[in-house]
Design a protein that fits this description.
Largest sheet: 3 strands, antiparallel
Oligomer: single chain
Number of strands: 3
Number of domains: 1
Mean pLDDT: 81
Strand order of the largest sheet: 1-2-3
Number of helices: 10
């Protein structure tokens, strides 16, 4: 056991495991927010709109969206910082550090949605929650001429671009993202676009780490198997002692 704990191999493994935890947190926050935004297709869920809050109160749908949105943007920023720190600590003065930075520059750094989500996190933490609008989209599902006139309803949650632009704190790339949008920014589209960008980058990073540390993984597996065998032998010996 001491041999494993004192090895350089285990240090790289621990850092990779720490990074996987940060990505897992970000992924699950995206998943929960996405599920929340999609669940409104369910008719039972839509019946909650019979609840009419007072004019100065938020609808429960808005309240839950704010909570999940904060989790999403906070975990997005945490993932950025954790990734940067782990790469710096693990690959200082290594060729991979340059490869990592080049990939960041080419694939993420200048993408407007990337900077917008970062600035949105700052906007929420240091200013306020942006107002979330609720839109109803009705679509006929019964054939034309059918006397029942059945419709399906989809609820979509949005930000107002003009409301967000009242702030002068947006960086250039975040402002570019806002300028490219229509009057309404659909939250489900925004989070999916950002998640796809980050998930693609971390898939590359995870693949490269496994390639670089393949020998370390093999060594650790061998050591763990040897340790488990020793434990099994000790238990068996004790059992028949």
């Amino acid at each position: 056991m001491e041999k494993i704990e004192s090895s350089l191999h285990i240090r790289a493994y621990v850092k990779i495991r720490e990074l996987s935890l940060s990505f897992y947190t970000f992924k699950e926050n995206h998943k929960m927010l996405k599920q929340h935004l999609d669940i409104n297709d369910d008719m039972d869920y839509q019946l909650q709109f019979e609840y009419k809050p007072l004019r100065w109160q938020y609808h429960p749908l808005q309240q839950e969206t704010y909570r999940l949105l904060l989790n999403f943007v906070a975990s997005a920023m945490a993932l950025i910082e954790h990734t940067r720190n782990i790469v710096r600590e693990t690959y200082l003065n290594c060729q991979f550090q340059k490869e990592y930075q080049n990939t960041i520059n080419q694939e993420i750094k200048d993408i407007p949605v990337n900077k917008f989500v970062q600035d949105l996190r700052s906007y929420i933490l240091h200013n306020k929650f942006p107002f979330i609008g609720i839109q109803f989209h009705h679509q006929r599902v019964s054939p034309l001429g059918d006397s029942e006139n059945l419709f399906s309803t989809k609820i979509r949650l949005t930000f107002s671009k003009n409301e967000l632009l009242k702030s002068d704190k947006w960086t250039k790339l975040a402002r570019n993202y806002l300028d490219s949008q229509g009057d309404l920014i659909f939250i489900d589209v925004l989070i999916d676009e950002y998640y796809s960008l980050i998930e693609s980058f971390h898939s590359w990073l995870n693949k490269r780490q496994r390639e670089m540390h393949e020998s370390e993984y093999s060594w650790l597996l061998d050591q763990w198997e040897e340790l488990y065998q020793e434990l099994e032998d000790a238990v068996s010996a004790k059992r028949f002692d």
